[in-house]
Amino acid sequence: MSALPEPLPRLTAMQYGDLDQVLRIERAAYSFPWTRGNFVDSLAAGYLAETLSHERDGLLGYYVAMAGVDEMHLLNLTVAPLHQRRGHSRTLLQALQQRCREQRLPKLWLEVRASNARALQVYAAGGFADVGRRRGYYPAGKGQREDAIVMSLSLEDR
């Protein structure tokens, strides 16, 4: 007799009721997390926002993205620290790319902290190209600022 297969993580639209869990992850993952207001405003504006959850492990991660003319801008992609390095970022990015294709948006953009080596590696492995730098884009504590690396992905050939 064989065991039942492990259920796969499930992607669903982010709801206001998810925000307590989302904020717990956001605060655990970042020194400068988004606020509840950032998420509420994003949902109210109709931005694309999805959560990835597992029936056993709960909320694993989420993303928020804003559609524009012929492009999508990834604003936030976060995986709970306890569930990182398991391919969940890749799952979220692939889902976002699929949404871009469904909306016929050929380009995906994002900014990432210059010091976030793991995220830079994930995005590069996903085909994103480093296309620029925004000087002093992120807060870095004690009145300091940190540069953002601007990355893009063309979805026309994918």
- Computed structural class: alpha+beta
Provide the spatial order of strands within the biggest beta sheet. Answer: 1-2-3-4-5-7-6
Stretches with pLDDT under 50, minimum 5 residues: none
CATH class label: Alpha Beta
CATH fold field value: Aminopeptidase
Portion in strands: 35-45%
**Helix tally?**
4
Radius of gyration: 16 Å
Dominant shape: globular
Number of domains: 1
Mean pLDDT: 94
Q: Tell me the major beta sheet.
A: 7 strands, mixed
CATH architecture: 3-Layer(aba) Sandwich
The residue fraction in helices comes out at 25-40%
Topology diagram in text:
Elements: E1 10-13, H1 19-29, H2 36-44, E2 48-54, E3 58-68, E4 71-79, H3 88-102, E5 107-113, H4 117-125, E6 129-141, E7 144-154
Parallel strand pairs: 4-5
Antiparallel strand pairs: 1-2, 2-3, 3-4, 5-7, 6-7
Features:
39% strand; Aminopeptidase; 158 residues; globular; alpha+beta
Structural write-up:
By secondary structure, the protein is an alpha+beta fold. The protein has a single domain, classed as Aminopeptidase, CATH 3.40.630. 28% of the residues lie in helices and 39% in strands. The protein contains 4 helices and 7 strands, in the order βααβββαβαββ. Strands 1-2-3-4-5-7-6 form a 7-stranded mixed β-sheet, with helices on both faces.
In short:
The protein has 158 residues and is of the alpha+beta class.
